[in-house]
Amino acid sequence: MGSNMNNIKVAHLVNQMGQGTVAGDIALSLNEYTNIDSVVISFQEPDDYQEKIPVESPSNNQVDKNSLLSRFSWLKQAVSRFDVIIVYHTLSGVLGSILARAHEIPIIAREGNDHRQFSMKVRSARTLTNLLCDQIVCVSQSVVDSYCGFERIVPNSKFQVINNGVNINEIDSARHKQWDLYSEAGIESKATVVGTAGMLIEQKNHSLLVNAIHSLAHQRNHNIHLVIAGDGPLLNELKQQTKDLGIADFVHFLGYLQREEVYKMLHQIDCYAMPSKWEGFSAAALQAMAVGIPCVFSNIPSFSSQYPDNLVYFHDPNSVMDLAEALESALSDTKDIGDEGRQFVLDNHTTKIMSEQYTEVVLKLFS
Q1: Cα separations (Å) of 88 from 49, 109, 133, 179?
Q2: Cα dihedral angle (203, 207, 213, 216), rounded to 10 degrees?
Q3: CB 14 within 8 A of CB 88
Q4: pTM value?
Q5: CA 104 to chain centre
Q6: Angle at 284 (CA atoms; ends 279, 289), nearest 5 degrees
Q7: In the beta sheet, which residues pair with residue 251?
Q8: What pLDDT is recorded for position 67?
Q9: Span 47-51, mean pLDDT?
Q10: Whole-number Å distance between alpha carbons of 319 and 350
């Protein structure tokens, strides 16, 4: 193989391509900022993604999507046409790594979350993928550190940290989108609004945030509202919590939003909160910082190790009082950290910077 980027074809293999699939962002940034030709391979039928991202799937290759054997045969042929394979998810990662190894194609495994939160079955499958691959790209050092027990069989020399990046231009242009948070949620214009976005699952710790809003609204007499973008299995439980606390009128569940709508929401809220119990390296956190609004994050390793204390209001992920006080500080924003946070993202975490780092890994494997 040569080392000319114009000759390199990279496949980003995922279980299913969707709007929030990070593989699409990485593929798009490589196509935009480098000469590497990137395509997403979706093992299952794609769902709601940007048309400008090139995607190969069973249906657009006339494959019987209901037949696992047919999809596997198609995947075998698809993988063979690329120079480097990047795998993201568990099932497609195992299959793709085996197929790529058979064709002697270099493999990169991208790891985006804390391994201690995975089931034994998932950890075992991902360990097999990690052993088959040539390089493991983790989104943060905290993800590297989360490998434990039998996973330590994976050689340390394979690990490299590449943080997520955000598209500043897309975030900025969303300011002009014809979508209004206040009208959508029925919030009066003079109210203070805290926002968050993410799946309604235990990891995101929305329950703590709801309790903190209750504390600010009822105990500290703030005219404050909370907007939550996202859907998930805890929706009904969280709605019931707001009713039990008597703040159902102050907490607004926006459901699943298009990415541009999430960006517009960020432009309209007064501060962004992310009280997660664990994370890999959150792109949503970067997106909020890029808007230039005050951000309140839990002091878990993946946040506290990445963001300087002077740019973020941190809190204990187990303390309602600590979160309420952090929100109060952010809303007064006496440090005026929003603009500094935005500059931090511009200097360190754009999709251009991310694509350059992935390019170095690809070139090293391809040369």
Answers
A1: 17, 6, 12, 33
A2: -100
A3: yes
A4: 0.90
A5: 30
A6: 115
A7: 226
A8: 83
A9: 73
A10: 32
Domain with 278, as residue range(s), is 168-348
**Is 239 in the same domain as 331?**
yes
Helices (H), the chain: 22-33, 68-80, 90-102, 120-132, 141-145, 168-173, 181-185, 206-214, 235-245, 259-268, 283-291, 301-304, 320-332, 338-348, 351-366
Residues 6+ apart with CB under 8 A from 103: 79, 80
Number of domains present in the structure of the chain: 2
**Which CATH number goes with the domain that contains 124?**
3.40.50.2000
The Cα diameter of the chain in Å comes to 67
pLDDT for res 6 = 64
Report residue 3's pLDDT band, with 50, 70 and 90 as the boundaries: very low
CB-count exposure of residue 69 (10 Å: 0-12, 13-18, 19+): exposed
**Looking at the predicted structure, is the pLDDT value of residue 336 above 80?**
no
Please name the amino acid found at residue 123.
Answer: R
Query: Three-class SS of residue 362?
Result: helix
| Shared-domain flag, residues 179 and 299 | yes
Residue 248 carries which side chain, given as an amino acid letter?
A
What is the per-residue pLDDT for 186?
94
Sole residue written with tokens 């979350």: 113
> How many helices (DSSP H) and strands (DSSP E) are in the chain?
15, 13
Do 209 and 341 belong to one domain? Answer: yes
